[in-house]
C-alpha cells in the first residue's frame, strides 16, 4: 500500500463504496445510538475510525419489523401497475421496473387484483408479557448495561428471516420471544452478563444482525426460564489494525458494510461479502460459518479468522497467540465457528485484511445451456483460475434478472432493449428457453484482471460461452441484494418463497440441480399448489472438489388453507432430495433448528456425541439455550 | 390377523380397467403398404433428438464407468488397455441394436399380412397407450411386457409403431443370434442382444449395464425387456429375474434421473403359437433348434386360427414412488457413482419386491378367455373320471353350467375375464371348444380331452401298437397344453386355493392352525406362483376376504367354517392345486427313495422324470402334469431355499446333498400327515 498515494486510496475507497456497500446514502443516526455506558476496560483504547454508524438499539426505527431491510425501501406496484423500488439507498432506488409485473404475473399466475397485505403495526396485546427473573434484572441494572423489555424490542429479536417467521409477523402473530434485550458495549460487559446469567439461571441467546435463515434465533417454545437476547450491535469498533501482519482486531457486533466502510477508509478490506452483509455481523458469521461472494480471493470465514475470543459459561476461550497456523491438536476455532450461539458469545475477532484492490470488473458469459455452463465452471475450478466471484444462473434466473431491468438509468443505457433483442442480436443459435448466464467479478491489479479475464473467457469459449457484457454481470449481483426485498413484494400478492443452498461434488452438480428443481415442482403439484412454482437455481461458488448450489423457490398460494405448512413440506422434501443426491445439509446458512433433524446422518452418531460432550462441558446448565444444531 | 382386518380389503371386482380397440380392423380395410410407409413422428422424452447407434456406442465406450472397468480389467489381466478397449468395442458391436425405420416399415408390412391371417383381432387399450405417451415425455420409460411367445416383442413394436409411440430398444437373448438373418433383422428393429450368462465377466457386465443406462438416462428410447427373463412355457408368470431391473432402477437410485416410469404390459394370447412346442419341451422331448429354417417351417401354422390377442398397457409405475421410504439413496454418496458396486441388502430386497409387484401388475391385466375356465374344468373332470375308471367325458350342457358357475366366481375374484355376455353361454363354450379342437374331443354331446387320439381307438393295453411310454408322453402333451390354459387363471385363484388347501390339511378348524398351514403351503409354493415376498398375512387376509365375500367361508370366534355352498368352491379350488401338491410330494419321495447321499445336479431332471414315468405307468400317480420339468425345477428350488437340499461344489459339477429327514417330513406335511404343520414350519 505504501506505493499508493493517499488520493489514490481515497479514490479507490470511494469507488469501492459505490460498488459494493454504497447502497447506503448516508448515516441514519439517531440519538438513541449514542453510547449508553462507557466501556471502562477499553476506555484507554481509541477507535480506529472517527465516525461510526451504529445500528440503533431500537432497530425498528430504521428497519422493517415484519419484512426485509430498511423501512424506507421496498418494491411496490404503482397505480399504473408498474413496479417501483422506493427510497434512495440503492442504485435501483426510485426507479421503475417495467417488465417486473409481466414476469411476476406470468411466472406465478398472480394478479394485481389479489392482494394479501401485511398487518401494518404490531399490536402489543399479541405479545406475551415477559417472564422476568427479578434477581437477574436487579443485578443487571446495577451493572449499568442497557436493557429493555419493551414488546417491540423483544419481538424484533425473536426471529430471523425464514419464510415462516416473516409470514407470521405479517399476520401479526407472535410466538415465544425473548423476555429481555440487553446491549453490551464491550467484551467485559458480555463477561458480566454471562456470569449473571449463570448465577440466576437465565437463558441467553446471542443476536447479531438477525439475518439468520435457519430458525436459529427462534426461542424454543418449551423454554420456561427468562430468555435474554444479547444484542451485539453496540460492540462495533475496530480496535486495532496491524498493517505489518495485515490483520484487524474487531468487535464481533460490527455489521459487514460498516466493517468494510471503516477498513476502506484505511485502504483495506476483508473481502468477506455475504449477500446479507448490509445487516449481518462478524459474530454471526463466525457463529454460522458464513461464506462470502468473493471467497475465491479472500476465503470463507474460517480462512479469514486468525483469533477469536468467546465468552462461555466456563470462562473465556481464546488462543494464546495470533499465529497463522498451529499444530496443537484439533483447532479450537472449529468448536467456535458454527457453534450457532450454543456455547457462548463471540466478542472479538482478529481477521485478515487485504489492501483494497486497485481494479474491479464485472463480466458475464452466456451459454447455450446449463450443462455447458456447469462444464465451464468445472474447468475454471480445475485450472484454479476462478475470478473473485463466478456464478452460473439457470434459464429461469436469467429471465428473472431480465425482468428486473430498470426503465432508464445511466448505468443501464448500454443495455439492449428487452430480452428478445438481447438474444436475437447476439446469441442467434441459442434457445432463449435454454440459455443461461454466468456472472463474473474480477478484482486485483488492472493488468492482471485483464489477463485473468481473457483466460476465463477463453475457457468459456471452449464450452460455447459468449461474452455478454459487464452490465449483465453487474445486474446479476444486484439481484442478490434486492431479492430479499422482492420476497416482501411477493407476499403482498399471495406469493411466498425462500432460498436454500447446498454444496455438492462436481460430478453431482447437474443431477442435483435438475432433481431438486423437479422435486419442488412435483411436491407443489402433489400438495395442491394451483400454479406451477418458480423453481430455479444457480451454481454460486466453486471449489476444487465441488460447488455450492443455491435454489430459489416461490409459488402462488391462493386457494391453500395453510400455505406456510405446504411451503415447509416442500422445502423439507427438497432438502431430502438434496441429501439423497449427495448434497450437504448446508454450505453456509447453518443448521439452526430448521435442519436439526438431519444432523445425525450428516455427522454420524459419534460426531453427535463429540458435539454434545463439548456442549456439556462448556455449558452444562444450557445457559446458551437456543437449542440449535444438536 | 384380526378378523376385522379381513374386511378392510379392497374388492377386486371394483378394479377399473380400460376398454380395448382392435387395431387389425383398420388394417383389414386399408392399404398395408400405405400403413407401412406412413409418416411416423413419435414424441420423445423432453424432446431429445434421436441418437444414432454409433453415437450411442461411443458414448458408452467413453463413459467414466467403462473407463474405470477397462483399467481395472487391464490391471488384473495384464492386457494393454487398448486391447481391452478393443475387446469392449467388439462386445458392444455384438450387443448393440441399430434401429432402422426402414426395417420397422418392412416388419409393419409383413407382420400386418401375417397377423391378419393368424389372428382374428389384436386388441389394445388405447387409454394405456395415451398414458404411455405421457409417461415417455415426462421421464425415461421401461416397458415390461409379459413373455409367452417369441412374437411378443415384434408385436409390441408393431403396436407402438401403429400408435406413433417411440419405438423401444429391446433386450433379447443371444439365442436369436443363432438365426443369422432373423437376428440382424431384429437388431434393425431395435433388439440388442445379451449373452445368457456372463457371470463374473466384469467387462461384459459393465458394457451391458452402461449401454442400457445410457439409452435410458438420455431418453433416446424406451427400454423394453422381459421381467420373467424367458418365455413362460406354462403360461404361469415366472419368478422375476432381477438383473435388468436392477440396471434400469440404478439411474434413479443414484440420482442420475429424477424418476423412471415402468410400464407393465400384459399380452394375452387366446392361443399361443408355441402351444404344443412348449408342452414337448417341458416333457423333455427334444426341441427343434431355434434356426431360421425352423421358423419358416412354422409357416404351416399360418393356416391355423389363433383367435385374438389382448395387449393391455398398465398404469405407469414411478420407481421414485416405489422407492419412497424403502431405500436410503444417501448410501451412494460416499463412493463415486461410476465405480461398480454390489447393491446393498436394502436395494436388493427393494428391487426384488418391486419385481414381484410388477409381475403381479402384469398378471392382473391379463385377459382371460372363456376357454381358460373350460380347460380348468375339463382337466379336473379328466382326473376325476380317470380315478373313477370312467372314460366318457362330460355332457356339454353340464360343462356349460359349470363354466357359468366358474365365470361368476372368477369375476368375483377380480379376474379380467372376456366372456361375451350377449352370446348364450352354450355358444360361448362351443366356440371355445372349436378354437381348441386340437385339445378336446366332442363326441355325442360329450366333451373330453383329446388324450386318446395318439393312442388310437384301442386305448392302452397289451394290444396297443404304441409303446406305453410313448403313449404316456403323447397324452401328457395334451394335458400339459390344457394345463397351460388353466394356468392363465391361476393368479386369480391361487390365494383362495392355498387357503382351501390349508383348511383341508390343517389339523383343526382353528384359525391359527389354518393360518399356519396356509403359511407353510405358501412358503412351499413360492417358487411356483407369484407370491410377493413377506406378504403372507396380506395374502391370507385377501383369501379369507374373497371366500367370506362369496359365502364359502364363515368365521366364528376362532374357527373357520366351510358353508354348505362353500364345499363346491373349496373342492374346485383345492383340486386346482392338487397336481402341484402331488408334484412336490413325488419329488420329495424321489429324493428320499432314489437319490443317493449326493446327486449330480444335472442328473436331477432326467432321474426324477424317469422315476415319475415309472410311477405313472404303474398307475400310482394321478397327474401327468407332474412330468413337467418346470414343476420339478420349481420344487427343487423350493427345497434348496428351505435348506432341505443343499448345493455343493463337486469336483467337476454341482452336486445336490439331500437332507432326507427334512425332505421326508416336508412330504408328510404336504400330505397333511403330520398332526400340525407348526413342527415342520419351525424346523424350516
Ligand atoms: C438475504 C440474505 C442473504 C444471505 N446471504 C448469505 C451469504 O451470502 N452467505 C452466508 O454465509 N450467509 C448468508 N445469509 C445467512 C446469514 O446472513 C448468515 O448466517 C449470517 O452469518 C448471520 O449473521 P447475523 O449477524 O445476522 O446472525 P444472527 O442471524 O443474528 O444469528 C445467527 C446465529 O448466530 C448466533 N450468533 C450471532 N452472533 C453471535 C455472536 N456474537 N456470538 C455467538 N453467537 C452468535 C445466533 O445466536 C444465531 O444462532 C443470508 C441471509 C439472508 C437473509
Provide structural commentary.
The complex is a heterodimer of chains A (630) and B (684). Chain A has a 7-stranded antiparallel beta sheet with strand order 18-15-17-16-20-21-19, sandwiched between helices. In chain A, strands 8-9-13-11-12 form a 5-stranded antiparallel beta sheet. With 630 residues, chain A is α+β, with helices and mostly antiparallel strands. Chain A contains 19 helices and 21 strands. Chain A is 35% helix and 18% strand. In chain A, helix 1 runs antiparallel to helix 7, helix 3 (134-143) packs antiparallel against helix 6 (187-200) and helix 12 packs across helix 15. Among the domains of chain A are: 238-355, Uridine Diphospho-n-acetylenolpyruvylglucosamine Reductase, domain 3; 357-478, Alpha-Beta Plaits, CATH 3.30.70.3450. Chain B is globular. In chain B, strands 1, 2, 3, 4, 5, 6, 7, 8 and 9 form a 9-stranded mixed beta sheet that branches. In chain B, strands 10-12-11 form a 3-stranded antiparallel beta sheet. In chain B, strands 15-17-16 form a 3-stranded antiparallel beta sheet. With 684 residues, chain B is α/β, with parallel strands linked by helices. In chain B, strand 4 (169-173), helix 10 and strand 5 form a beta-alpha-beta unit. The site of flavin-adenine dinucleotide (FAD) has 37 residues of chain A, from strand 6, helix 8 and strand 13. Chain A: The active site is at 550 (proton donor/acceptor). Chain A: One of its GO terms (biological process) is ether lipid biosynthetic process.
User: Per DSSP, what share of the residues of chain B sits in E-state strands of 2 or more residues?
Assistant: 5-15%
- Assembly type of the shown chains? heterodimer
CATH class of one domain in chain A: Alpha Beta
Largest interface: A-B, 13 and 11 residues
Secondary structural class of chain B = alpha/beta
Shape of chain A: globular
Structural class of chain A: alpha+beta
Termini separation of chain A:
45 Å
Helix % of chain B is 40-55%
Question: In CATH terms, what is the fold-level topology of the largest domain in chain B?
Answer: Glycerol-3-phosphate (1)-acyltransferase
**Segments of chain A where pLDDT lies below 50 for 5+ residues?**
1-5, 19-38, 40-50, 409-416
Question: What's the number of structural domains of chain B?
Answer: 2
List segments of chain B where confidence is low: pLDDT < 50 over at least 5 consecutive residues: 1-8, 453-462, 675-684
The helix content of chain A is: 25-40%
Count of DSSP strands of chain A: 21
Query: Which architecture of the largest domain in chain B per CATH?
Result: 3-Layer(aba) Sandwich
Q: Give the overall form of chain B.
A: globular
Amino acid at each position: 500500500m505504501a506505493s499508493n498515494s493517499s488520493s489514490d486510496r481515497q479514490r479507490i475507497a470511494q469507488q469501492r463504496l459505490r460498488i459494493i456497500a454504497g447502497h447506503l446514502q448516508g448515516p441514519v443516526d439517531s440519538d438513541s445510538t449514542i453510547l449508553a455506558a462507557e466501556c471502562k476496560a477499553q476506555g484507554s483504547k481509541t477507535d480506529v475510525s472517527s465516525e461510526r454508524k451504529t445500528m440503533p438499539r431500537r432497530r425498528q426505527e430504521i428497519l422493517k419489523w415484519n419484512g426485509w431491510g430498511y423501512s424506507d425501501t421496498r418494491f411496490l406496484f404503482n397505480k399504473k401497475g408498474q413496479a417501483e423500488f422506493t427510497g434512495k439507498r440503492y442504485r435501483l432506488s426510485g426507479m421503475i421496473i417495467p417488465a417486473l409485473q409481466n414476469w411476476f404475473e406470468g411466472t406465478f399466475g398472480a394478479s394485481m387484483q389479489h392482494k394479501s397485505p401485511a398487518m401494518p403495526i404490531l399490536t402489543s396485546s399479541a405479545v406475551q408479557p415477559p417472564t422476568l427473573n427479578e434477581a437477574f434484572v436487579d443485578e443487571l441494572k446495577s451493572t449499568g448495561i442497557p436493557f429493555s423489555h419493551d414488546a417491540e424490542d423483544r419481538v424484533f429479536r425473536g426471529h430471523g428471516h425464514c419464510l415462516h417467521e416473516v409470514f407470521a409477523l405479517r399476520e401479526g402473530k407472535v410466538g415465544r420471544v425473548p423476555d429481555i434485550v440487553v446491549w453490551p458495549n464491550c467484551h467485559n460487559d458480555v463477561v458480566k452478563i454471562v456470569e449473571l446469567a449463570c448465577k440466576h439461571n437465565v437463558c441467553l441467546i446471542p443476536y447479531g444482525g438477525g439475518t439468520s435463515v435457519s430458525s436459529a434465533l427462534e426461542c424454543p417454545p418449551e423454554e420456561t426460564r427468562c430468555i435474554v437476547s444479547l444484542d451485539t450491535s453496540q460492540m462495533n469498533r475496530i480496535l486495532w489494525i496491524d498493517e505489518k501482519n495485515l490483520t484487524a482486531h474487531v468487535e464481533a457486533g460490527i455489521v459487514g458494510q460498516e466493517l468494510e466502510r471503516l477498513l476502506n477508509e484505511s485502504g483495506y478490506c476483508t473481502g468477506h461479502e455475504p449477500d446479507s452483509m448490509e445487516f449481518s455481523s462478524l459474530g454471526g458469521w463466525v457463529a454460522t460459518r458464513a461464506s462470502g461472494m468473493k471467497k475465491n480471493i479472500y476465503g470463507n470465514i474460517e480462512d479469514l479468522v486468525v483469533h477469536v475470543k468467546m465468552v462461555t459459561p466456563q470462562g473465556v476461550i481464546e488462543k494464546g497467540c495470533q499465529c497463522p497456523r498451529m499444530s496443537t491438536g484439533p483447532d479450537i476455532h472449529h468448536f467456535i465457528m458454527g457453534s450457532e450461539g450454543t456455547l457462548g458469545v463471540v466478542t472479538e475477532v482478529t481477521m485478515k485484511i487485504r489492501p483494497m484492490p486497485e481494479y474491479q470488473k464485472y463480466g458475464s458469459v452466456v451459454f447455450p445451456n446449463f450443462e455447458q455452463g456447469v462444464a465451464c465452471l468445472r474447468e475454471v475450478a480445475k485450472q484454479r483460475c476462478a475470478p473473485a466471484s463466478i456464478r452460473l444462473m439457470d434459464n429461469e434466473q436469467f429471465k428473472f434478472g431480465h425482468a428486473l431491468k430498470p426503465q432508464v438509468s445511466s448505468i443501464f443505457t448500454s443495455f439492449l432493449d428487452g430480452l428478445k433483442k438481447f438474444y436475437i442480436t447476439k446469441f442467434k443459435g441459442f434457445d432463449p428457453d435454454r440459455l443461461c448466464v454466468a456472472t463474473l467479478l474480477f478484482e486485483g491489479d488492472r493488468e492482471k484482471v485483464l489477463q485473468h479475464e481473457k483466460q476465463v473467457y477463453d475457457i468459456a469459449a471452449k464450452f460455447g460461452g459468449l461474452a455478454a457484457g459487464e452490465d449483465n454481470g453487474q445486474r446479476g449481483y444486484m439481484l442478490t441484494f434486492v431479492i430479499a426485498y422482492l420476497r416482501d413484494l411477493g407476499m403482498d400478492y399471495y406469493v411466498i418463497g425462500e432460498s436454500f443452498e447446498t454444496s455438492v461434488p462436481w460430478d453431482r452438480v447437474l443431477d442435483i440441480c435438475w432433481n431438486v428443481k423437479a422435486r419442488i415442482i412435483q411436491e407443489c403439484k402433489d400438495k395442491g399448489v394451483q400454479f406451477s412454482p418458480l423453481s430455479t437455481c444457480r451454481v454460486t461458488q466453486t471449489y476444487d472438489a465441488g460447488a455450492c448450489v443455491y435454489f430459489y423457490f416461490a409459488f402462488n398460494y391462493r386457494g391453500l388453507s395453510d400455505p406456510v405448512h405446504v411451503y415447509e413440506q416442500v422445502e423439507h422434501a427438497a432438502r431430502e432430495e438434496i441429501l439423497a443426491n449427495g448434497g450437504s445439509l448446508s454450505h453456509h446458512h447453518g443448521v439452526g433448528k430448521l435442519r436439526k433433524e438431519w444432523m445425525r446422518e450428516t455427522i454420524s452418531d459419534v460426531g453427535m456425541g463429540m458435539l454434545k460432550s463439548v456442549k456439556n462441558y462448556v455449558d452444562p446448565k444450557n445457559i446458551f439455550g437456543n437449542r440449535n444444531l444438536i | 390377523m384380526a378378523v376385522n382386518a379381513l374386511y378392510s380389503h379392497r374388492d377386486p371386482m371394483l378394479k377399473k380397467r380400460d376398454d380395448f380397440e382392435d387395431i387389425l380392423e383398420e388394417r383389414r380395410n386399408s392399404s398395408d403398404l400405405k400403413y407401412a410407409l406412413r409418416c411416423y413422428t413419435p414424441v420423445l422424452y423432453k424432446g431429445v433428438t434421436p441418437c444414432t447407434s454409433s453415437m450411442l456406442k461411443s458414448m458408452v465406450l467413453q463413459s467414466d464407468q467403462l473407463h474405470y472397468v477397462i483399467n481395472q480389467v487391464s490391471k488384473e489381466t495384464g492386457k494393454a488397455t487398448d486391447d481391452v478397449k478393443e475387446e469392449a468395442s467388439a462386445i458392444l458391436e455384438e450387443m448393440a441394436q441399430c434401429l432402422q425405420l426402414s426395417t420397422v416399415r418392412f416388419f409393419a408390412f409383413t407382420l400386418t399380412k401375417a397377423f391378419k391371417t393368424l389372428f382374428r383381432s389384436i386388441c389394445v387399450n388405447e387409454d394405456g397407450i395415451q398414458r404411455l405417451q405421457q409417461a415417455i415425455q415426462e421421464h425415461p420409460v421401461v416397458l415390461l411386457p409379459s413373455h409367452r411367445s417369441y412374437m411378443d416383442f415384434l408385436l409390441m413394436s408393431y403396436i407402438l409403431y401403429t400408435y406413433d409411440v417411440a419405438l423401444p430398444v429391446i433386450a433379447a437373448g443371444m439365442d436369436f443370434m443363432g438365426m443369422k438373418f432373423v437376428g440382424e433383422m431384429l437388431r434393425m428393429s431395435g433388439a440388442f442382444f445379451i449373452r445368457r450368462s456372463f457371470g463374473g465377466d466384469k467387462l461384459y457386465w459393465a458394457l451391458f449395464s452402461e449401454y442400457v443406462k445410457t439409452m435410458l438416462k438420455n431418453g433416446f428410447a424406451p427400454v423394453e425387456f422381459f421381467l420373467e427373463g424367458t418365455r413362460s412355457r406354462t403360461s404361469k408368470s415366472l419368478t422375476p429375474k432381477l438383473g435388468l431391473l436392477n440396471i434400469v432402477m440404478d439411474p434413479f437410485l443414484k440420482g442420475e434421473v429424477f424418476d423412471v416410469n415402468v410400464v407393465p404390459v400384459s399380452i394375452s394370447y387366446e392361443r399361443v403359437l408355441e402351444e404344443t412346442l412348449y408342452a414337448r419341451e417341458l416333457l423333455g422331448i427334444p426341441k427343434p433348434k431355434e434356426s431360421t429354417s425352423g421358423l419358416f417351417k412354422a409357416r404351416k401354422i399360418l393356416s391355423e386360427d389363433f383367435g385374438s390377442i389382448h395387449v393391455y398397457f398398465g398404469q405407469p409405475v414411478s420407481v421414485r414412488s416405489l422407492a419412497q421410504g424403502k431405500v436410503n439413496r444417501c448410501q451412494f454418496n460416499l463412493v463415486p457413482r461410476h465405480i461398480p458396486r454390489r447393491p446393498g441388502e436394502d436395494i436388493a430386497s427393494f428391487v426384488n419386491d418391486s419385481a414381484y409387484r410388477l409381475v403381479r401388475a402384469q398378471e392382473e391385466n391379463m385377459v382371460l378367455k372363456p376357454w381358460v375356465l373350460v380347460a380348468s374344468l375339463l382337466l379336473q373332470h379328466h382326473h376325476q373320471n380317470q380315478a373313477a375308471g370312467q372314460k366318457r367325458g362330460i355332457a356339454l350342457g353340464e360343462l356349460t353350467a359349470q363354466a357359468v358357475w366358474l365365470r361368476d366366481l372368477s369375476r368375483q375374484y377380480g379376474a379380467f375375464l372376456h366372456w361375451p355376455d350377449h352370446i348364450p353361454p352354450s355358444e360361448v363354450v362351443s366356440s371355445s371348444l372349436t378354437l381348441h379342437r386340437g385339445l378336446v374331443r366332442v363326441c355325442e354331446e360329450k366333451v373330453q380331452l383329446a388324450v386318446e387320439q395318439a393312442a388310437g381307438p384301442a386305448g392302452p393295453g397289451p394290444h396297443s401298437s404304441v409303446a406305453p411310454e410313448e403313449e404316456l408322453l403323447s397324452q401328457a402333451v395334451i394335458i400339459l397344453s390344457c394345463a397351460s390354459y388353466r394356468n392363465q387363471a391361476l393368479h386369480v385363484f391361487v390365494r383362495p386355493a392355498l387357503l382351501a388347501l390349508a383348511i383341508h390339511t390343517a389339523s383343526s378348524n382353528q384359525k391359527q392352525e389354518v393360518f399356519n398351514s396356509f403359511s407353510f403351503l405358501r412358503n412351499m409354493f413360492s417358487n411356483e406362483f407369484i407370491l410377493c415376498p413377506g406378504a403372507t398375512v396380506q395374502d391370507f387376509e385377501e383369501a379369507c376376504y374373497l371366500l367370506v365375500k362369496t359365502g364359502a367361508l364363515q368365521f366364528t370366534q376362532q374357527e373357520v367354517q366351510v358353508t354348505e355352498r362353500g364345499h363346491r368352491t373349496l373342492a374346485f379350488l383345492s383340486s386346482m392345486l392338487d397336481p402341484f401338491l402331488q408334484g412336490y410330494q413325488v419329488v420329495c419321495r424321489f429324493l428320499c427313495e432314489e437319490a443317493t447321499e449326493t446327486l449330480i445336479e444335472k442328473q436331477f431332471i432326467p432321474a426324477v422324470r424317469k422315476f415319475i414315468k415309472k410311477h405313472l405307468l404303474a398307475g400310482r400317480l394321478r397327474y401327468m402334469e407332474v412330468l413337467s420339468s418346470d414343476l420339478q425345477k420349481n420344487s427343487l428350488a423350493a427345497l434348496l431355499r428351505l435348506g432341505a437340499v443343499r448345493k455343493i461344489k463337486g469336483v467337476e459339477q454341482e452336486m445336490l446333498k439331500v437332507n432326507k429327514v427334512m425332505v421326508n417330513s416336508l412330504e408328510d406335511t404336504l400330505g397333511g400327515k403330520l398332526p400340525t404343520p407348526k413342527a415342520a414350519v419351525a424346523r424350516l
